[in-house]
Design goal:
globular, about 600 residues, 20 helices, alpha+beta, about 45% helix
């Protein structure tokens, strides 16, 4: 006879206990004891399973029963819970448990926390002000909350992209596809589940559109590979013809480790241009949040392909010295000789790309000697008398001077302080990008060009005044430095002179390259990234112990908005009502009286 065990108490495993089938044992005392032991073990095992499932439900709760208040969402908790799932995805991928990876991806893409972060991402960036073909924007808290509940797999059909053409640096037009807000949020959501896998299986020396990696890491890698005397002397500058526009849909659907049902809909959604709907038979649209990661996964494998083995030539062991340095779809490959690159690397590369529907551009792909120099990610790499120097490119310097000239010419009648506020962000951004290269002379040259343009701007405003009068009005002596373009201003601390930034004031700081196999989603690398961030901020704070302690005390968060204070952010030290010093983003100063919760 069989029996069903029921539990009348309201316990969390009540529904589990009803399902336990217990085989009837003998009615002796020993039989009853054994039956109780078996029952207890089964209950204990099922209770542990249910407890784990409850933890998953709490950390990855669906959108069916979560709060309806956008402003009340705990964003720090959202980030923490999503990061936990992403770390589990990485671990499962490394262990080769592909079914578990899929299960964890499913849980993440159906969790409330991930959906909330996806909506926050697409509404807080600059693209949040650009609508798709439906002309819908999620600009209010109510609309954003509604957007969270719209991110469902069942019945999902993406709308066509809105085609927009923008000018490239060479004057040609680049087509961009603008998805709707809902489609952007769905891409951001599935990217959270795809990116941990992409980081785990990616080429070590790929640096574009990857978390915690930058152009400076690519620059540092080239320096390490080519700065020594016995380093490779030849470089293959490869250019893929229309990379984003020609990737094979068939290859992506077969090889990209994501939800194939959703991916297929994105790839075949088409685009709308001047009222006409065009189908998409190939490529991933530039402008989509997930597109750079799809392109990276498509090109991963080139590093292993070009890693040629050592060979024996005339009784001597020789290394081909082939190294790949890739930033998105732009990459260079080093080699010991031009012959190796022409006869071995390029044929393999063409075959690799052909399978993915891509081809090399014959016009732009070329082989260069390091003494002639080459440009990559905005830097010029060239050896001078055997010494490798990395400088800003001439094109980059030209673009800056043209942009500064354009701002000055369009603001001939504005107040001086307005012009300074328009120019300072441009100068600061350019200086921050190139302050890790050999840029001192370039900075001085650009400062001179900018000064000449500002002097002409000043003379034009007062044609009847003398040069001394104009100099005294627009240029001042600050900290012993003459001819500082600035304006006298007042603040709570007293009078001061608000000046234009100078590129020559940027301190040249050598960048420390990221470790090649570092994975920001892997818990094993958490301490490495924490130490790396701490060291960067220590340089940012000019080694001030007070600032470092205050930043650490606030758990690296802004006192006002609760967002992280990163290396690229500008910050201020302000006092609250109780005279306590706190650190905030510069843009958040007006919010310092808000109640703060750690």
């Amino acid at each position: 006879m069989d029996m069903w065990v029921e539990d009348g108490r309201e316990s969390e495993c009540r529904f589990v206990m009803k399902r336990i089938r217990v085989e009837t044992l003998s009615y002796t005392k020993v039989g009853r004891l054994l039956r109780k032991v078996i029952l207890y073990k089964k209950l204990l095992e099922l209770f542990k399973v249910e407890k784990q499932m409850n933890e998953i439900r709490k950390s990855c709760a669906s959108t069916d029963h979560i709060q309806n208040d956008w402003d009340g969402i705990d964003w720090l908790k959202c980030e923490v819970e999503v990061q936990k799932l992403q770390a589990r995805i990485v671990k499962a991928q490394k262990d080769g448990k592909h079914n578990k990876v899929k299960s964890l991806q499913w849980i993440l893409t159906h969790s409330f926390y991930a959906k909330a972060l996806a909506v926050k991402r697409v509404t807080s960036n600059q693209g949040g002000k650009t609508a798709g073909v439906d002309k819908v924007l999620w600009s209010t808290s109510k609309a954003k909350m509604k957007g969270i509940f719209e991110l469902k797999r069942r019945g999902y059909n993406p709308q066509p992209l809105k085609r927009v053409n923008i000018k490239k640096s060479n004057g040609k037009l680049r087509p961009l596809g603008v998805p709707t807000m809902r489609d952007r949020a769905m891409q951001a959501l599935h990217l959270m589940a795809l990116d941990p896998i992409a980081e785990t299986i990616a080429d070590n020396h790929s640096y574009g559109f990857r978390k915690k990696r930058s152009t400076e890491d690519a620059m540092s890698h080239i320096f390490l590979a080519m700065s020594k005397r016995d380093a490779p002397q030849w470089i293959l500058e490869a250019d893929i013809k229309g990379c984003f526009d020609h990737i094979s849909h068939e290859w992506m659907l077969k090889n990209i480790p994501t939800d194939k049902y959703i991916l297929d809909k994105w790839l075949k959604s088409g685009y709308l241009f001047k009222g006409t709907l065009f189908p998409t038979a190939e490529g991933t649209p530039q402008g989509g949040i997930i597109s750079p990661t799809l392109a990276n996964l498509t090109l991963d494998g080139i590093q292993e392909l070009v890693n040629l083995k050592r060979r024996t030539v005339n009784g001597e062991r020789i290394s081909p010295m082939t190294n790949l340095i890739r930033y998105a779809d732009d990459f260079v490959i080093t080699g010991r000789s031009k012959k190796i690159l022409e006869e071995e690397v390029i044929p393999k590369l063409k075959e690799f790309l052909k399978v993915r529907g891509l081809t090399l551009s014959e016009e732009k792909t070329k082989i260069t000697h390091i003494n002639d120099g080459f440009d990559f990610v905005g830097f010029n790499f060239r050896k001078y008398n055997g010494k490798l120097l990395i400088k800003p490119t001439k094109e980059g310097m030209k673009r800056l001077t043209e942009k500064v000239a354009d701002i000055i010419n369009r603001n001939k009648t504005v107040q001086q302080i307005t012009l300074i506020r328009l120019l300072n962000p441009v100068i600061t951004g350019w200086g921050n990008y190139y302050d890790s290269a050999v840029s001192a002379k370039s900075f001085q040259k650009l400062d001179k060009i900018i000064f000449d343009k500002l002097w002409k701007w000043s003379l034009r405003r007062h044609p009847k005044k003398g040069k001394d009068w104009i100099k005294n009005k627009y240029f001042h002596t600050v900290n012993g430095r003459k001819w500082q373009f600035g304006v006298k201003s007042k603040s709570s601390k007293g009078d001061y002179i608000f000046t234009l930034k100078r590129l020559s004031d940027f301190k040249i700081t050598r960048h420390i390259k990221l470790k090649a196999d570092a994975n920001p989603y892997d818990n094993e690398w958490s301490k490495y990234f924490a130490d790396r961030k701490y060291n960067k901020m220590r340089v940012k704070f000019l080694w001030s112990k007070t600032l470092i302690e205050l930043w650490s005390k606030q758990k690296h968060l802004c006192f006002a908005c609760g967002k992280r204070i990163e290396e690229s952010d500008t910050w201020n030290i302000v006092k609250t009502d109780n005279d306590t010093k706190v650190m905030t983003h510069k843009r958040c100063n007006y919010q310092t009286k808000l109640n703060w919760k750690y």
